Amino acid sequence: MKILCTICARGASKGVPQKNIRNLAGKPLLAYTIEQARQWGRADRVIVSTDSPEIAAIAEKYGAEVPFMRPDYLATDSAAKLPVIQHAVSCVEQMSGVQFDYVVDLDPTSPLRSVEDIEAAFNKLLSDPDACNIYSVTRASKSPYFNMVEVDQNGYACLSKQTSRPIVRRQDAPVVYEMNASIYIFRRDALMSADSVHTNRTLLYEMPEERSVDIDTELDFKIVEMLLLNKRQKDQGSGRDLFNLQHKIAVVTGAAGLLGREMVRGLAAHGATVIAADICYDKGLKLAGLSEQGVYPVHLDITDRESIDGLIRQLDQVDIWINNAYPRTDDWMDKFEEVSFASFQKNIDMHLNSYFLCCQAVSAIMKTRRKGTIINMGSIYGLIGPSFDLYEGTDLTTPVAYAAIKGGIINLTRYLAAYLGQYNIRVNALAPGGVENHQPESFIKAYEKKTPLKRMARAEDVVGPLLFLASDASAYITGQVIVVDGGFTIV
Ligand SMILES: NC(=O)c1ccc[n+]([C@@H]2O[C@H](COP(=O)([O-])OP(=O)(O)OC[C@H]3O[C@@H](n4cnc5c(N)ncnc54)[C@H](O)[C@@H]3O)[C@@H](O)[C@H]2O)c1
Known about the structure:
Elements: E1 3-8, E2 23-24, E3 27-28, H1 29-40, E4 45-49, H2 53-61, H3 81-96, E5 102-106, H4 115-126, E6 133-139, E7 149-151, E8 157-159, E9 177-187, H5 188-192, E10 202-206, H6 218-238, E11 249-253, H7 258-269, E12 273-278, H8 281-287, E13 295-299, H9 305-313, E14 320-323, H10 341-369, E15 372-377, H11 400-420, E16 425-432, H12 441-450, H13 463-470, E17 481-484
Parallel strand pairs: 1-4, 1-5, 6-10, 11-12, 11-14, 12-13, 14-15, 15-16, 16-17
Antiparallel strand pairs: 2-3, 5-9, 6-9, 7-8
Helix pairs in contact: 1-4, 7-13, 9-10, 10-11
Bound molecules: nicotinamide-adenine-dinucleotide.
Residues 253-254, 256-260, 278-280, 284, 300-303, 324-327, 377, 379, 432, 434-435 line the site of nicotinamide-adenine-dinucleotide.
């Protein structure tokens, strides 16, 4: 599915001079819409149609393309919007030789829309194969059935929409909407043959009043600025919105394990729909008590490519993928001298190589949506050598393959972050220290003594850093390793 996003911004504007590039709460008005289009992430290209070199320069600065300059005849006060969008589509298609399936037009004078509005409007059009297009509206404050009037041929006032019986209460009038000039989405062929945005198969997407102010006048400009500053203050004050995972789909591998269970609970508590994937589907997930709303247990064997592909085929959206499963052989705890080459190879294959397979498979979905975040579970033992004295007097050790696997996962993370950044996919790693889990007391004591925070990690300690990496709170962070070890590695 090929999607073109157009943003039409002409140079001359009547009500508010130079409005498209005027500074609005810290950046040019046009920048808000470009950023929303890029953040939405599903458009293959985001282009600005303009006749003004000044607007073109600002558009490019904020990450949009300006592949052509709009001809003068389409940049007049009287030029309608539809031919401008059609012209943009024709130009881009001719220049690239690529034909689009959908065209999403975002009006730069409506900066209060949210990325979720674009996604919801798009999905509404997708879910109705008969519809030609959709545009955004808001409930009208006045009703033609009740308090909107016009002058009749005798020069007297009359209601704009007459009914057989007069409507005396506003609530009894049919709901009417006003177009809020924010989002227009078309199936490409319907767009190219249309002569109006109103077809006989046009859907509406309703937005609340507070996200529907379209800047036409100086007063609108001031209202929008005030609303934007208020929202910014609220977001910064609470910080809550940044961690909101509503409408996100997260997959946790190894979900029935010690850390996986806590991850699933944390993600679900923040609004994500969580696919809890584990090889021990029946026993493990039941034991883990993962029955929260929004949690869907599935069977997954990360060492089996068919199993990974089978899960991926069922999902057309994955926003967050957490590589957390911990496959290992029965001789995992053998000391270095006893480790057979076959066992070493097998563990690398089951763990490091399977994380590679999962990253490759899920990034294909994320690429089509142009967004996503992958979190790989590393370990402090992928960053530093082990402290063998901690294990003295116990049957425990840290396996040699673990160092190679976790070191590999951490640098795989950096490679993928560098490569997948172009698709707006972030890849980061968590590197926990030892998590307390019924180890011998002497080991726990020795570990606590060596750790600045004087305790081993608890499983829930990974949840905060995980939510940070999974959410927009870390929107500009990729290729990083967050060490969750109570300070173990700094001394
Ligand atoms: N526990 C720690 O002290 C610690 C410290 C640092 C890093 N880590 C890392 O965190 C991750 C989770 O560790 P944990 O302690 O929760 O492990 P765990 O053994 O408690 O859980 C691992 C889960 O992975 C599942 N699993 C195993 N093979 C699988 C496969 N082939 N496909 C799908 N699922 C499979 C298991 O059924 C289990 O539910 C691992 O990557 C581990 O290396 C753990």
